[in-house]
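Appendix B. Raw example, untouched.
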Amino acid sequence: MYLPLEEKMFHSFHAVATFTARLMAAALRCCWLVLLVWPLASQARVEFGALHGQADATVGCLFPLAGRAAIYGRDSIAGMKLALAELAAEAPPGKAPRLRILVEDDRSKASVATRIAESFISRDKARFLCGVVSSGVAQAVSRVARDRQVIMVGTDHASSRLTIEDFHRYYFRLSNDTYTSMAAGARYLADLQKKNNWRRLAFIGPDYDYGHIAWRDFEDSLNRAGVHYEMIGQLWPRLYEPDYTPYIAELLAAKPDVVVTALWGGDFIAFLKHAMSSGLLEKTRLANFDTGGNFDVLASLGDQLPTGLILSARHHNNWPDTARNRKFVEDFQRLEGRFPTYAAEGAYAGIMAIGRAMLLAGRHASNEKLIQTLEGLHMALPEDPEGYVSHIDPETHQIVQAQAIGEVVPNTAYPPAKVMLGRWVVYRAEELQPPLDLVRSRRARAHTDRSDFTRSTATPSPPIPTQ
């Protein structure tokens, strides 16, 4: 497997000790203070890593820590702890960047997240912002990062708008976005159409930026893949919708051959339960290419094997079957006593990127130097298949990764789940990037739209007084 120079350097520093020994040694070397509180409701911050006053940099992270999406925050914290341990273990003694990590509950609200991000920067002197699950919230935090010239490393939210139309040099994303997932999904459905000649398509997604951008990226990818279809309906339930019964009824009445959904987390679990009990999956294929294969979804199925279900996610516990991925999953399970959702690997990747950029550029490097280092940074990550190394695209600041799509199969190796994904179809990372002409055309169109909006809302100049 080819590894860039910096990756070879990191491999040469790897410790041979067990995970527990590495974590203890890292704690002694970096003077770590770990304070983890699992709140039942929105509470004060979580803080871990280097002590205040001893850190090379403070990283301010925003995640939901209560409610339906709280599992993403909890798993992200655990993933970041694993990254800190690995950074300390792989670097020469005393060379690992000392990171102080702060986590606060953004409550999945843009206004709350904006206040927290500003406080991280002003009060805590954060050099980096990190995390965020909701794409709508991420857009608000990204604007803070742009205006305050602080690097933001996104680890979970997926709207491609952040790296295309709303791109700015201070924003980077270390998990797959909607374009990646939907490009893979379009290729999967193109192949499926050759097998069963499906034609009628319906889409259901959450009624905010992530859902609408997911559909836009999917529509573009279907057209580029040469898929011919009849669009018979688009449904837009609100985020955290409590009852999907009317939406299921509409889908049953429309009789699609394929339903593609961008619902995620607890929303997708609730929708899937309604879909199975209503008999929808006996009449159509249901696909979720971005989040549907997450571990919490699979665990919720019990021993059921729904027919017609096509799923993927941003990380899988059982794919790829590589030493790196097995180690990551085992380390997480040892640390937390359970198996991770994909949020853990995204947060792990985010902290690894920050740490490696600081190691390469220097602990006290300028933002300019850190940005240059992050652009094009190569990192072998748990979700990389053998022979491939993830890297950050300098044009979009989006990490470039392969994607696997699978079907539900019996598998009891990851309790409490009794099913996992299998029968994988894997798509190369290079096939899933947005074409450069699409990136530039969307950015140009967004710039024109913003300019038109600015002109239309500008206060007219007062008339010139006459003599």
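End of appendix B.
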